[in-house]
Fold this protein.
Amino acid sequence: MNEMEITIKAIRDITYDAKLIKSDDDYKRVLNKYDLIISGEKINTIDSTELRHCLKNVYNCEISHDEFLKLISIVCTKLNLKKEGLYLLENTNVLNGYLIHLF
């Protein structure tokens, strides 16, 4: 699989498991499984920086920060996921990541 296919698979896996979270134990299991935090009112939001970390440590897929920003934007569009840009505090013109709403 290429980087895009791995990223799509990871997001689908995380989304599937996030939808099954019904208790604190479920939440902890999913966090440990993917090594990332899922937040939001519906437990449906992830940070792209943590997703990149998950790809490296769980899916053995290492992508540079700049390449990942390009890739994740395309993946979110393909999967029809809402994303919000996160910008550097010291330079609000520089995109640093995204909050991704899984559902």
About this structure: The mean pLDDT is 97. DSSP finds four helices and three strands in the chain. Residues 3-101 form one domain. Residues 6 and 59 are 7 Å apart (CA to CA).
